[in-house]
Each structure stands twice: as structure tokens, then as C-alpha cells.
Design goal:
1 helix; single chain; mainly beta
């Protein structure tokens, strides 16, 4: 009689373990950044989110970003918040066949469209150009790059 009970318990444990595996594992990753801040990301496959918290060297929270994950856990959007968790703005991403972000649309916390950013790729995965557009679809000119004044040698 003890053997069937043991078999039943093992079968139940195997079914439970199998069910747990199908939901995925919550992962936490902390990275120390070159400026001394830390980035802690908690990925939850069941919620389809990756929550990133940026903290200073004293562990004071600076900002939070919640990435919305789509197929293969690739981000399809994000919600950007300040240190207190107040939403500042939102973004949604359009990707090309290679999985690169080619367009980011920005909205206010109230979902009012703010504009978009277009990424143009050159050779390989390098971004060759970035174009920003306002809410009316007008191209926003980038400030001219600062140039070092030239000095002429007098003879």
C-alpha cells in the first residue's frame, strides 16, 4: 500500500512541476553602470513585463521603466515613470523583420499623441540617422553640432 501512495505523490509532484514550468520563471538582474548607478530589471513572463529601476550609488530610486513584452519577450512598448512612480510618458515600438526598432511613438500619461522618432539603419545594425517628429507630423530639426573654432596661423 505504501508503494501506490508514493507513486501517486511522485506523479502529483511531476504534474505540479510541469505546470509551474509552463508559466515561466521570474528573473531579476542587477547591473552596475559606469556612472555608479544600478539598473535592476525584474522580468515576469506571466505578466509579460520587464520592470527596470535605476538607482543612484546610495540606492535612491531615480526612475522606473516598465517594458511591455510581446512575442519572444521582445519589448513592444514602455511606460516611463519618475522616482515616485508617477508616469511621465509612454512609448510604443515598431520593429522591422530583423527585430530592430524602426519607430517609437510617444504619448502622454493620458494617451495624448506627442510625436514619434524614426530610426534609419545603415550598414549592419548601426543607426545611421534619427528623425524626430512632433504631434502634427512636422520634422523637428536637430541642433547643429558644435564646431571647434578654427585658428589661422599668421605668417
Amino acid at each position: 500500500m505504501k508503494l501506490p501512495a508514493l507513486f501517486s505523490a511522485l506523479l502529483c509532484a511531476a504534474i505540479t512541476a510541469s505546470a509551474q514550468d509552463s508559466y515561466g520563471t521570474i528573473r531579476a538582474t542587477t547591473k552596475l553602470r559606469p556612472d555608479g548607478t544600478t539598473s535592476t530589471t525584474i522580468t515576469d513572463p506571466e505578466k509579460r513585463t520587464a520592470e527596470e529601476t535605476i538607482s543612484d550609488a546610495n540606492r535612491k530610486v531615480l526612475r522606473k521603466t516598465t517594458y511591455i513584452l510581446g512575442e519572444r519577450d521582445i519589448s513592444i512598448g514602455a511606460i516611463f515613470a519618475d522616482a515616485k512612480g508617477k508616469v511621465i510618458y509612454k512609448a510604443s515600438y515598431v520593429r522591422d523583420g530583423a527585430g530592430r526598432v524602426i519607430e517609437t511613438a510617444f504619448t502622454s500619461p493620458e494617451d495624448k499623441y506627442l510625436g514619434k522618432r524614426i530610426f534609419v539603419y545603415g550598414a549592419g545594425d548601426a543607426v545611421a540617422r534619427v528623425e524626430d517628429y512632433d504631434a502634427q507630423g512636422r520634422l523637428i530639426a536637430r541642433p547643429a553640432a558644435a564646431t571647434k573654432p578654427t585658428t589661422r596661423k599668421r605668417r
